[in-house]
Structure prediction request, 176 residues.
Amino acid sequence: MNLLSKTKKKSLKPVNYRQKIMDAAIRVFARKGYNDTTMIDVARAAKVGIGTLYNYFKNKDELLISSADKTIETELGKIRKICEKQADPMDRMETYFIQHAMLLKENPHIARFLVSQLRQSEGFFERNPEFNPLRHYVNFVKELFETAKESGRIKDVDTKALAIMVIGSMDMLICQ
Prediction:
């Protein structure tokens, strides 16, 4: 009997376990919520051992923060590149809203994760007061409004307040 014939072939593409775990965490957090999600749930969803999960993330808070930051960085980065192709500030804002809506429509688990699950645990925010995932969106929309204001396309307004109102309104529409 040839022992070599029973060995499994190794994948040629290395597995990015950190990203695999974060992707699974987003799906689990979106489905179960932060409070009801356990590290074991995430390990099972990612199809990794619990030890592997803890090699990358020391606890659930770190996993949530890393998952949110990476998701926002990736998705907002894609939207930002598309928006930059628009010369007119108003077209840039319209493109942002359309692209953001498409992202959330095509990836409802990301919408649930970003819009609702990130806000459900008071204990989490007490332990992590510096964590504010929406600041990325607020800053980006604020920049869009500032560019429109500088070009004379909108009136002189408090762009940060306007950005917060718009992001809040979008959140409410998404949660309907």
Notes: The mean pLDDT is 86.
